[in-house]
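Key result, reporting period 2: structure in, sequence out.
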């Protein structure tokens, strides 16, 4: 899957290179043609400092220079996909011209009067016209505020097949650093393409003998199937699901909540006291939020006793992405792979015991109620809360410390490719009124039980300032600056809660406010949801924990999502903040 020269130098495009997509990239390629599923937009609000008042940082020439530099360092941002040989043989293609010049619509600069204009564009791209710009793999938008001189909104849009969460931080950090710095050294395209490889090719197992590779991959496949077999049962919020939901493009919507600086400090202090991260407690917070919502519906008579009896005996399954960079080829990591723009994720699944229902099937007035549901004090003690958090952490630790971690991740990929190919091909056939195609499924393809229902997805990226500083340009010698000759330490790949069991880097130096030209003041991530999506993320930015939820509005209601986010917030404050007022209420 290495890059190959497919066209020698020409006056119009220079040299052109191509390579096949890896399995993970292929699965996300199918996502994208399924009405833009999984496309990402990263949104930043930035301010110029007084020192930069007269600098043309956001002039068209400087912006386009910075974007071209970014593409030359990370050429996946400039590829196009070639499916001329069919959906099973898609290739990434990139030319020297593509990384130095910009296609129509690739870079947009304009003035806006309010954040609402930016919101409207985001929702047009994510929800209303998600495939309107699919001739471009990535885009840059720069918006200047008409009545706020020096304040700008920056949007980076990319296909998920070329980027993930770590990539988003790299794109923003590098763009802002280059934007505020003089032009610097650009490495040859061939050198940068050698870093833009799929996970399949960067598996350390590839360096072993063929016999040992076969043995490890066989064991990994069996381990993966055994892990899937354990995912029996489960439940989530009441939702609207039909036999066509799997092939109906999601209607993306989102919710969110942010803790204050003081609340965040108290939450993180409590987590630290119990030797946990916020990412380890968020599954229990989510479980308790769902628990209170279900109790509320049962006590109102909206759930039958049979359904209640079923739900109260079911485990609850959670899952989310794992950053694979710390497990990939050592030489690639030493060259800076820890922060490379690429798709380098796998997924985990973990299970919590059944939701707490201390009052059984009772609905009488003797059941204590706060806002229509039993209070947290009646559902779960603080001790049990932290016990379940440690259960989750232990499962996740076993998953990410497995000696066949990378091989298990790659054993999973063919399943995702087949499932997503089926979804998109069925969607296309249904649109045309044609019979739904069938695909041959090998035996022992996936052992997940038919009654498996995940509670919700999770993503915890932790402290973003490690890889996304607030002030720019980055100081001389900063380990994550492309202007620094030495590549970033592999330890910078250990970001995000699933990687919390790897050594974290020390916080690098930052540019002091008086010396900065540019400062990030806010950021958000928008993801085009999948069918059934109910995905809760969290991150810590500028000393505040944010929780953000992406969901499929075909399946879940806005009212339920708002209620869920309120319950998550209340649960976090009850269990993690030493506040007698909140504890008296709940």
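The corresponding designed sequence is given below.
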């Amino acid at each position: 899957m290495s890059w190959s020269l497919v066209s020698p130098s020409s006056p119009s495009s220079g040299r052109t290179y191509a390579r096949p997509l890896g399995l993970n990239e292929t699965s996300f390629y199918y996502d994208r043609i399924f009405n833009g599923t999984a496309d990402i937009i990263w949104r930043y609000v930035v301010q110029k400092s007084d020192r930069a008042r007269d600098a043309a940082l956001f002039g068209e020439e400087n912006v386009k220079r910075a974007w071209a530099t970014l593409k030359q360092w990370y050429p996946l941002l400039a590829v196009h996909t070639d499916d001329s040989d069919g959906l099973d043989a898609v290739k990434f293609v990139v030319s020297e011209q593509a990384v130095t010049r910009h296609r129509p619509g690739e870079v947009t600069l304009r003035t806006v009067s309010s954040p609402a204009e930016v919101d409207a564009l985001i929702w047009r791209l994510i929800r209303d016209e998600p495939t309107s710009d699919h001739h471009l793999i990535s885009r840059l938008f720069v918006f200047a505020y008409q009545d706020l001189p020096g304040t700008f909104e920056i949007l980076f849009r990319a296909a998920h097949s070329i980027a993930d969460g770590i990539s988003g931080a790299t794109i923003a950090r590098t763009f802002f650093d280059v934007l505020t710095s003089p032009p610097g050294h650009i490495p040859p395209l061939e050198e940068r393409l050698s870093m833009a490889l799929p996970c399949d090719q960067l598996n350390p197992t590839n360096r072993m003998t063929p016999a040992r590779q076969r043995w490890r991959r066989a064991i990994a496949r069996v381990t993966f199937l055994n892990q899937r077999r354990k995912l029996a049962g489960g439940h989530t919020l009441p939702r609207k699901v039909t036999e066509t939901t799997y092939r109906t493009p999601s209607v993306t919507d989102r919710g969110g909540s942010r803790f204050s600086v003081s609340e965040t400090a108290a939450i993180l202090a409590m987590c630290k006291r119990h030797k946990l991260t916020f990412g380890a407690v968020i599954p229990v917070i989510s479980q308790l939020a769902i628990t209170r919502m279900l109790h509320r519906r049962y006590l109102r008579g909206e759930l039958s006793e049979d359904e209640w009896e079923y739900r109260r005996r079911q485990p609850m399954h959670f899952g989310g992405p794992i950053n694979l960079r710390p497990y990939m080829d050592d030489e690639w990591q030493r060259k800076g792979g820890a922060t490379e723009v690429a798709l380098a994720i796998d997924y985990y699944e973990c299970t919590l015991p059944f939701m707490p229902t201390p009052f059984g099937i009772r609905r009488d007035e003797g059941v204590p109620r706060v806002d229509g549901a039993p209070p947290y004090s009646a559902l779960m003690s603080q001790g049990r809360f932290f016990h379940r958090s440690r259960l989750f952490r232990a499962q996740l630790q076993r998953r990410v410390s497995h000696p066949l971690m990378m091989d298990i991740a790659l054993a999973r990929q063919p399943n995702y490719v087949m499932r997503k190919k089926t979804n998109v091909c069925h969607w296309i056939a249904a649109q045309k009124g044609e019979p739904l195609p069938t695909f041959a499924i090998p035996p022992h393809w996936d052992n997940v039980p038919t009654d498996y229902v995940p509670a919700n997805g999770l993503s915890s990226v932790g402290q973003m300032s490690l890889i996304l500083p607030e002030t720019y340009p980055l100081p001389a010698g900063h380990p994550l600056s492309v202007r620094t000759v030495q590549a970033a330490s592999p330890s910078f790949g250990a970001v995000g809660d699933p990687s919390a069991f790897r050594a974290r880097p020390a916080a690098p130096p930052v540019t002091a406010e008086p010396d900065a030209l540019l400062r990030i003041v806010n950021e958000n991530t928008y993801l085009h949801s999948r069918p059934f999506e109910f995905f809760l993320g969290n991150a810590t930015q500028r000393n505040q924990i944010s929780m953000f939820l992406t969901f499929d509005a075909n399946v879940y209601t806005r009212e339920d999502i708002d209620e869920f986010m309120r319950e998550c917030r209340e649960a976090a404050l009850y269990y993690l903040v030493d506040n007698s007022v909140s504890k008296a209420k709940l």
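Residues 580-586 have pLDDT under 50 and may be disordered. The chain is about 35% helix and 20% strand. This case is discussed further under Risks and Mitigation.
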